[in-house]
Design goal:
This protein is of the alpha+beta class. It has 4 domains: about 220 residues, FAD/NAD(P)-binding domain, CATH 3.50.50; about 90 residues, D-Amino Acid Oxidase, Chain A, domain 2, CATH 3.30.9; about 200 residues, 3-Layer(aba) Sandwich (Glutaredoxin); about 55 residues, Winged helix-like DNA-binding domain superfamily/Winged helix DNA-binding domain (Arc Repressor Mutant, subunit A, Orthogonal Bundle). The protein contains 21 helices and 24 strands. The strands form 5 sheets. Strands 3-5-4-12-13-14-11-15 form an 8-stranded mixed β-sheet. The chain has a 6-stranded mixed β-sheet with strand order 6-2-1-10-17-16, with helices on both faces. Helix 7 packs antiparallel against helix 8, helix 10 runs parallel beside helix 20 and helix 13 packs antiparallel against helix 14. It starts with a strand and ends in a 5-residue tail after the last strand.
Length: about 650
């Protein structure tokens, strides 16, 4: 089968490479006279990156890219609104990606200088593509990959109704040292709080950045009379933005900048007619706020090539391609419009509700579970740390029956007048931790109480309540992380720098965490303390199990696992224990870090066997480790992309 692809951009070339792999004859027709190099750069998620790696198929051709590991939304005055970790995002220059794809495609199969004119038909079936220069290309199937203003789409489906341009975008690029941190490369965006105006900065390489200014033209616009008027307009609009923005405008070459009139159109009822099919922006167009355009083009190419390889007919392949893609595309179009509406009316939502384009909103499924558990704990409680292996085992075996609510107990208000058994001062806590470490074979380093002792457990407890306000699951990860910082890394987790770092690492919005830490979270912590008093909580940890009626069963302090399991079975005699995965890699997908004791409890292996298995995983590059004075914690490694 011969495929004629109209458009030698990212969508067309990617599909061509995949079709060639599947044994099809392919000709790509590109209107430019040379390899296209227009455009600056874009963000791409791991989904698109994986497809690009598939296209390489062992080739040594390298695609230059730059990791973007954080999103930081600020106000023009510099105040942080959001600061979040980004997983598996890269910034790629459009010219680099285009050259990368051309290097993977046989040069003789690309015909340059061909601008599409029309099709020739036999009946209702296309047999030939005709180009403005008089060239023709015969084929069995024809693919329109000619962008948002697709002439192929217009011929087979007629005109689409583009949405009105309500946001414009000015784009440029610079190379200079802006003095920004390179430890965590960030997509930084300054958003005006009262009107549709924003400035974004994305690192594309060493001291290289692509920048953009988004604005609502109904508020202010300009007549495009050349680079000088473009520069003057940017300076006028961005006058109240910080010095780094002014430095970018000063350094920018406005002869290389352009204005993008953003628009979209409704989801098409289908992506094909007879033997002609559309991919990429020719098939669907979303507003740029979603950062999905390039990834969608790659996913289209992968999906369509797979459908053609597995279908009994061309018609069946094209129909399946639409069924697979339409739902996601429709969501992206809707999301782009919602983000566009928020951008033009920023005061319509508060800072906590501002959507982050690169992070899809979490879908919360409320599931009623038969057993409720109140878990009273504290970030500096050593017994709460050594009980972790048992609680993790309980979660894996009976978690589907348990609704666990974490409550902070307030173990250490301050050292003034503190008297808890044998602990009256920081050095007593250090000695106690060393004893607990030996007794329970779990790593703790009590030296923190000599080197940088905590004055109270209240600040990290309040930080946990602030984390719960964002996301209860991530709050648990946050609590785990600050405990690791304290018990193993000897970090004083009262200090904001460590709380912020833990929030960022566990996927929380660190900027919001600080707002809530200083706002509503202290009141929530106070409510936890009052509840603990009402329930007579004196020991940490304490877990109170309830069947939702009048039956309450309590476990205070450290106990063997059988104690917890028996309580669940008393409340729920028909509960069925779930099997814990045998594969240790699967365990690290559930828990990003484990002590050797945790691994041993979860797998049933001896301490020595656990150590050997963990060392084997480390040699294979699947996990890393964090050494402490009294033991090791093993940490899942993220795959290199």
């Amino acid at each position: 089968m011969k495929a004629v692809i109209v458009g030698g951009g990212i969508a067309g070339l990617s599909l061509g490479i995949l079709l060639k792999k599947n044994g099809h004859e392919v000709v790509v027709c590109e209107r430019a006279d040379d390899v296209p190099s227009q455009g600056h750069a874009f963000l791409m998620h791991q989904e698109g990156q994986k497809i690009l790696n598939t296209l390489k198929n062992g080739s040594l051709v390298k695609l230059p890219s730059n990791k973007v590991e954080a999103f930081n939304l600020k106000r023009p005055g510099g105040a942080d609104v959001k600061y979040l970790k980004l997983d598996h995002w890269k910034c790629i220059k459009r010219a680099d990606l285009t050259r990368f794809l051309y290097n993977l495609f046989p040069p003789g199969n690309v015909r340059m200088g061909r601008t599409f004119s029309h099709f020739l038909y036999e009946g209702d079936k296309v047999v030939t593509a005709v180009f403005d220069n008089g060239d023709t290309e015969h084929g069995d199937i024809f693919i329109g990959a000619d962008g948002s203003q697709s002439k192929v789409r217009q011929e087979i489906m007629g005109k689409v109704n583009y949405s009105p341009v309500t946001v414009k975008e000015i784009v440029g690029s610079i190379t200079m040292d802006l003095g920004l941190s390179t430890d965590t490369p960030a997509f930084t965006k300054y958003q005006h709080e009262k009107r549709g105006l924003a400035f974004g900065l994305i690192p594309t390489g060493n001291n290289e950045y692509v920048w953009f200014m988004q604005y609502d033209p109904t508020y202010s616009d300009f007549e495009n009379n050349g680079p000088a008027s473009l520069e003057a307009f940017c300076r006028e609009q961005l006058g109240e933005f910080p010095s780094v923005v002014q430095a970018v405008i000063d350094a920018n070459d406005f002869t290389r900048s352009y204005v993008w009139n953003t628009t979209d159109f409704d989801l098409l009822p289908k992506f094909h007619h007879q033997n002609v099919v559309l991919i990429g922006d020719a098939a669907h167009l979303a507003l740029p706020f979603t950062s999905t355009g390039t990834t969608n083009a790659l996913v289209d190419a992968k999906t369509l090539s797979a459908c053609l390889a597995n279908a009994t007919s061309i018609e069946a392949a094209f129909q399946r391609y639409y069924r697979v893609r339409a739902n996601d595309i429709g969501k992206h179009i809707t999301a782009g419009r919602e983000l566009n509406e928020w951008f033009r009316n920023p005061s319509s939502v508060n800072d906590d509700e501002i959507p982050v384009p690169l992070i899809p909103p979490k879908i919360i499924v409320l599931e009623k579970k038969p057993v409720q558990v109140l878990y009273f704990t504290d970030p500096v409680c050593s017994t709460c740390w050594v009980i972790q292996p048992l609680l993790r085992k309980l979660y894996l075996e009976y978690g589907k029956y348990l609704d666990i609510k974490y409550c902070m107990g307030g173990l250490l208000p301050s050292w003034e007048g503190y008297d808890r058994g044998q602990i009256r001062k920081p050095s007593d806590a250090a000695r106690h931790w060393e004893e607990v470490c030996q007794l329970y074979d779990t790593p703790l380093d009590g030296d923190v109480w000599f080197e940088d002792p905590l004055s109270s457990s209240y600040p990290p407890s309040i930080a946990f309540k602030a984390a719960q306000m964002q996301d209860t699951d991530k709050a648990i990860l946050f609590l785990r992380r600050i405990k690791e910082m304290l018990f193993l890394e000897k970090k004083n987790i009262i200090k904001w720098e460590f709380l912020e770092k833990a929030a960022f690492e566990t996927g929380l919005d660190a900027a919001r965490l600080k707002r809530d830490f200083e706002g509503k979270a202290p009141g929530l912590f106070k409510a936890d303390l009052e509840l603990a008093t009402d329930l007579g909580i004196k020991v940490f940890p304490t877990l109170i199990f309830s069947d939702g009626n009048s039956r309450l069963l309590r476990v205070a302090g450290y106990h063997d696992y059988d104690k917890f399991e028996n309580i669940v079975l008393r409340l729920l005699p028909n509960a069925v224990k779930q099997a814990i995965p045998d594969n240790p890699v699967q365990l690290f997908k559930t828990f990003y870090s484990m002590t050797e004791k945790e691994f041993s409890v979860l797998t049933g292996a001896s301490a020595e066997d656990s150590r050997l298995r963990l060392q084997s995983l480390e040699r294979k590059g699947l996990i890393g480790k964090q050494e402490s004075k009294n033991g090791t914690i093993w940490i899942k490694k993220e795959p290199q992309d």
